[in-house]
Design brief:
Layout (H helix, E strand, L loop, with lengths): L12 E2 L4 E9 L5 E8 L8 E6 L12 E4 L4 E2 L3 E4 L6 E4 L13 E5 L1 E5 L9 H9 L8 H8 L4 E5 L9 E2 L2 E5 L5
Parallel strand pairs: 4-7, 9-11, 10-13
Antiparallel strand pairs: 1-6, 2-3, 2-5, 3-4, 5-8, 6-7, 12-13
Length: 183
């Protein structure tokens, strides 16, 4: 077994089951960026999320949340999945059934966010703030819309619902509903 590199950490162990690869892009203050690969380990391998240290095959073939990785020679430490140079690894996809559309949602989806005001409640979130969080209307760099589009490689587009002959005012994709009852 390889040492884990973390003082006081338990010794490393061999990988038992495939893990799901997670991909993120980190941007630094100097403007440089780096793609970071992590693996969501199986429950049998501890269930934690670990940084991948070592060579992956062609990272263009990796789809975050879909691609899986396995090597019976990989070592699991407390913070890393270590893939030694030259060992065999298996990259696969979680969703192997090409007819399974539940794994892939594409197209344009209209979304309506709803704020519910109860007679006895206080709302701390304005329609403007919720619209910004959902759709980026106030300049938010990260929104539900931006994240769905990024994670789907722009195959899923989120647009805000608009009034379509309704008396209920939808503002920036947000509708506020007033209840006449206490909750």
């Amino acid at each position: 077994m390889m040492p884990s590199g973390d003082a006081g950490a338990p010794p490393s162990r061999k990988m038992k089951r495939p893990c799901t690869i997670l991909v993120s892009d980190a941007t630094f203050e100097d403007g440089s960026s780096k793609t970071v690969f992590e693996c969501k380990m199986s429950a049998e391998d501890g269930g934690q999320i670990l940084f991948i240290k070592g060579a992956l095959l062609n990272d263009n073939d990796i789809r975050g949340g879909v691609s899986t990785l396995f090597s019976n020679e990989a070592e699991i430490s407390s913070k890393r999945l270590i893939i030694p140079e030259g060992v065999s690894i298996i990259l696969d996809q979680k969703y192997t059934n090409q007819n399974d559309q539940s794994a892939k949602i594409t197209g344009n989806r209209k979304v309506l966010a709803i704020i519910v005001k109860a007679k006895d409640g206080r709302i701390k979130l304005s329609e403007e703030k919720l619209s910004d969080m959902m759709f980026g209307t106030g300049g938010a760099e990260v929104s539900v819309k931006s994240q769905y589009e990024a994670c789907s490689y722009n195959e899923l587009t989120i647009t805000m619902a608009q009034n379509q002959g309704s008396d209920a005012p939808i503002n920036g994709g947000v509708l506020t509903v007033d209840l006449s009852k206490n909750i």
